[in-house]
Design brief:
Low-confidence stretches: none
Number of helices: 4
Order of helices and strands: HHHH
Distance between the termini: 19 Å
Structural class: mainly alpha
Helix content: 55-70%
Strand content: under 5%
Number of strands: 0
Length: 67
């Protein structure tokens, strides 16, 4: 997973929605959704919540970094 995908997934994990993440990271909402979808696929997750679980269990998610 790319650093940007991880950053977007981390923001999503702490409760930010696509609009807030887009504003925070200076991206479009579509780009945020694409990063979330790509991260979910790369983690072989069923959905975004499953991707967050996989990511946090592996120790990759850094909730304090953004949010």
């Amino acid at each position: 997973m790319s650093e940007r995908e991880a950053e977007v997934l981390t923001c999503y994990a702490v409760g930010s929605d696509a609009k807030a993440i887009a504003s925070q990271l200076h991206l479009s909402q579509g780009t945020v959704r694409n990063y979330l979808a790509s991260a979910t696929t790369k983690l072989d997750a069923r959905n975004r919540v499953d991707a967050i679980r996989i990511d946090s269990e592996a120790g990759w998610i850094q909730p304090g970094r953004r949010g």
